[in-house]
Amino acid sequence: MTTPVQGHHIVRAFSEELEQLTASVATMGGLAESLVSDALDAIAARDSDLALDVIQRDKRLDTLQRDIERQIIRLLALRQPLASDLRVCIAALKIAADLERIGDLAKNIARRTRELNEAEPLALSKSIERMGRLVQGHLHEVLDAYASGEIGGALGVWQRDDDVDEHYNTLFRELLVCMAEDPHIVGPGAHLLFIAKNLERVGDHATNIAEVVHYAVTGTELLADRPKGGSSGTP
Amino acid sequence: MTDAPRPIADAVRQRLARRHRAEGRFRMFGVGAIVLAIAFLAVLIGSIIAQSTGAFTTYTLTLPITIEREVADPRGDMSEASLRRGSYNQLIQRALQAELPAASSRTELRDLFSLYSGLNAAPVMRRVVADPSLIGQEISVSMPVNHEIDLYLKGITVREDRQPGEGAITMDADGDEVRLTGEMPVFARFVSRIRAQAEDERQEALSRAARAQAQAGMAESRDAREAALAAERRAFADAERFETIIDPETSILLGARTASLLIGVNGGVISVSAVSPDGRTAQGSVLLPLESDAASSDWTEWVIETPPAARRVGDLQAIYARTLEERGLIDQRFNTRLFLNADSREPELAGVMGAFIGSILTMLVTMLLAVPIGVGTAIYLEEFAPKTRLTGFIEVNINNLAAVPSIVFGLLGLAVFINAFGLPRSAPLVGGMVLALMTLPTVIISSRAALRAVPPSIREAALGVGASKTQAVFQHVLPLAMPGILTGSIIGLAQALGETAPLLMIGMVAFVADAPSLGLAGLTQPSTVMPVQVFLWSGASERAFEMRTAAAILVLLTLMILFNAVAIYLRRRFERRW
Amino acid sequence: MAEDANVKAGTVYHPAEGNRKVKVAASGVDVFYADKQALHDVSVEIGDRAVTAFIGPSGCGKSTFLRCINRMNDTIDTARVSGSIRIDGEEINDRSVDPVLLRARVGMVFQKPNPFPKSIFDNVAYGPRIHGLAVSKDELDSIVETSLKKAGLWDEVADRLDQPGNSLSGGQQQRLVIARAIAVNPEVILMDEPCSALDPIATARIEELIDELRENYCLIIVTHSMAQAARVSQMTAFFHLGHLVEFGPTEEIFTNPRDRRTQDYITGRFG
To answer: Which positions 366-405 of B are in contact with C (Cβ < 8 Å)?
Structure first.
């Protein structure tokens, strides 16, 4: 992420450390995005090996997050960042936490994918994948916004979070209908339901990241209520 | 760049020795300068002390004097007016004559009475006037001997040698003339001594003649040649005269240009006028009567090497002085008169008291004028005056005033204080005013520097709690600047104390025989000051003033050191309090 | 940022603490030193019972402005101040206002501790004495004691009030100077980099003291340490090249300054 203020710090090492931090967060973002993407691929291709790979790669994300936290603590203690620098640090801390959660959710999706692969394929997998690609797109957009410091993308994601919610609500209703018709698919259906829920959460995290990026760049919080779509009986 | 930069250690090492040498050289110069300065100071002080030692003691003649009524009280009514007209010098003369009854002829008496100055009668008169009951009584009177006699007794002006003679001598009196005969060549020692001396002088005369001849050869004008030739002739005549003394065949005649030989024997003194070449017999005249003509082997050979023409103490005076000294009537004492008397024409009576009091009064006036005005000016200029072109102009001029030669201030004093204001000449009041003018710039400049040195934080602190400008200055800044102001003022005063030139202009160079009174009245009485006293004495012709000049310089130096010590003490004291 | 709706007339709004009465109000203050303009059109309203910090690079005019508030610039011959400064609505740049009276109302603490070279007691008693605040010795004693207590110095010096003020440590001296300023019971206390000569512990003591004094006084502090400004002040003003660039609640200045120059200064970048 480029800081909202151009120009280098008088203490050059400070600038370098901030850049290093931003780069770490970007790396972590890329990894988290690839986890989500691979998990979706695994669902689509019913590829258990890919799913296993996702599960294993989540550990790397955890390591990265701890690393970033250490960097931030060090920065806060030694450099006492203020104003935009302070916001950049806090944003990195929050984004890293969000990304770590996203990784966990991807891992959870991968686990459920392996379970699903044991059973007959369900028609609704396509809907799940569509929703997944949308969420993945949002994630990609906010990470781009973070890297570039352009808040337009972040704002877009923040405003379009409803799309994900709508997708989720539709899927939820369809799954309920299917499971009511055919009690045999209650097991895989439940897995799909959780996968959808996880994807919805990933979307929420992406929105969080969008808010954090906005705060880091502008210094103001996105206070107004997000345009919410029709509320649903979320579990 | 072909070669890589050398490591710093190498580069430094290469120049290190040179740098250390430069530093060592500088230190050496510093130490050298200090050593030189100390050496000069030591030489200066040493020479002054060495020169002055003679002035701190004086030979004093103490006589029992009977105050005879008819001499002391010519009108016989014991009134003060009558007592003041008494001839006290006559009383002293009588007492002296009583001690040396042998002196009877006019020349003898003149020599005897020249042992002291007639001015010494004045203190006797004052004693009698103060206490008329002394009349008819015998009192002891001390007075310094004449300065020439004093110098002679101290051995400064006259070289003499007294030693016991060897072998018995017999005396054949023929009226005043005496013929002395020794059982052996008793005068041989004197003869060889005077011949050696004569030989030296002859050589000297000859070389003088040679120089004069050379000069004559080179002389450019006729007059110069004549003069040189005359000098040559004189030198040859001198040499010839010495030859007669050296000649072993002729008897040696003693005169004004040879050493004197006095023979002290049987309580009297014989002045020898001729000695036989073999040193066995001598011809002389009696200066102090002998008790007997009996032959004696207990006699004194008393050689006054300085010829009578080159000294100001006659043989007879020397004899009287030595006789009185032997009797204990003349002894060496600490010279209290140097400190307690005012100036006098007679060196033995001259002292620095008048100049000292004059200096104190002058300094008092200077201090009372220069310090308040100077410090006040400094405070105003430094703390209150707006920094305008006018104040800048005033500042520049104050700094310039510090560089004005002091004699200019003297001229100013003469023109303004004496001519325009009509103040008395030679008075400490005017001197003090002139010196105050001279000291003002020093006081102002040093006070301003001291005020400027007070950290501005103190002013701000005072103003910050709501003190007015005046309160801040007088309650905080001034007390902190006090040590500096005092030091500057005292140094300025010390400088004024040593100043002569401006005082010459206003007549403080006058000879003042009475010390001014130490009080308000003294301010307008004629007076002089220490440095002027030194100046006056240094110009006096008497040899005795030379050492008194050195002594006065010492007193002045002591005074200066005292001033500086006070400055240091005050500074310390104020610094401790603040 | 504070919404305009929250600001009432004659008050300064603070998001966390609400409205605050304006103590010092400056408008259009220009200061010239000889021909050089040191301060350009400074307008600011400073709230009572709060600490306002002035920050900015050296030579930015923050001290100059501070010294306008008690007319300390009067002591500099070449200084010329124009514009209006009001304390409680009363114009202080007026000729009719005696700076001596003003300085009794507006105390000042300087960068270097500058106790008078007198005893601790006399240091504190000086102000009350010249203003005649105490009629009896007992009253003076109690003023000195209260002031030293308020300055948190009483316990350390109670048994040696007759010792010279310079014998104290730097931090103690600075607290003594604060006690001296408090002793005349001023309304506003100006502090010009009060901790720049002190070690961190002494600094912390002074900061704690400043925070306590906030209850009763309007404090204005100039500091080079942004961390200090952040720690002690509620409002912060950033000066740059003689301009007041930004003035606002301290947390806003330090988290989200609106002006680029403030941002650069605070984050330590070249402008």
So the answer is: 386-387
Structure tokens at C228: 């200090």
Domain region containing C256: 4-267
pLDDT digits (tens, 9 = 90+) for C4-39: 445 555 666 676 666 778 899 999 999 999 889 999
Q: What is the pLDDT of residue A130?
A: 87
Tens digits of per-residue pLDDT, B325-354?
A: 998 999 999 999 999 988 888 899 999 999
Q: Is A87 on the interface with C (CB under 8 A)?
A: yes
CB contact under 8 A, C230 and A86: no
**What distance in Å separates the CA atoms of residue A65 and residue A71, rounded to the nearest whole number?**
10
How far apart are the C-alpha atoms of B30 and B42, rounded to whole Å?
18
Q: What is the DSSP string of B169-198?
A: EEEEEETTEEEEEESS-TTHHHHHHHHHHH
Q: Name every residue whose Cβ is closer than 8 Å to that of residue C141 and which is 6 or more positions away in sequence.
A: none
For residue A86, the chain C residues in CB contact (below 8 A) are: 254-255
Architecture of domain A12-218: Up-down Bundle (1.20)
Residue spans of the domains in chain A: they are 12-218
pLDDT per residue over A172-186, tens digit each?
A: 888 888 888 888 888
Contact at 8 Å (CB) between B112 and B330?
no
Claim: this prediction has a pTM higher than 0.80? no
**In residues, how long is chain C?**
271
Q: Work out how many domains chain C is built from and give that number.
A: 1
Contact (CB<8Å) B466/C112? no
Mention every residue, 6+ apart, whose C-beta is less than 8 A from residue A23.
none
Q: Which residue is associated with the tokens 């002139």? A: B434
pLDDT digits (tens, 9 = 90+) for B299-331: 888 999 888 888 889 889 999 999 999 989 999
CATH no. for residue C20?
3.40.50.300
Task: Verify B-A touch: 3 or more CB pairs within 8 A.
Answer: no
pLDDT tens-digit series, residues C77-114 = 788 899 999 998 889 988 888 888 899 899 999 888 88
The β-bridge relationship of strands C51-55 and C79-87 is: unpaired
| DSSP class per residue in chain C | ---GGGPPTTEEEETTTEEEEEEEEEEEEEEEETTEEEEEEEEEEEESSSEEEEE-STTSSHHHHHHHHTTGGGGSTTEEEEEEEEETTEESSSTTS-HHHHHHHEEEE-SS----SSBHHHHHHHHHHHHT--SSHHHHHHHHHHHHHHTT-HHHHGGGTTSBGGGS-HHHHHHHHHHHHHHT--SEEEEESTTTTS-HHHHHHHHHHHHHHTTTSEEEEE-S-HHHHHHH-SEEEEEETTEEEEEEEHHHHHH--SSHHHHHHHHTB--
Q: Rounded CA gap, B469 and C251, in Å?
A: 41
10 Å CB burial of residue B28 (0-12, 13-18, 19+) is exposed
Residues B343, B351 contacting (CB under 8 angstroms): yes
**C-alpha closest to that of A64 among A100, A116, A109, A35:** A100
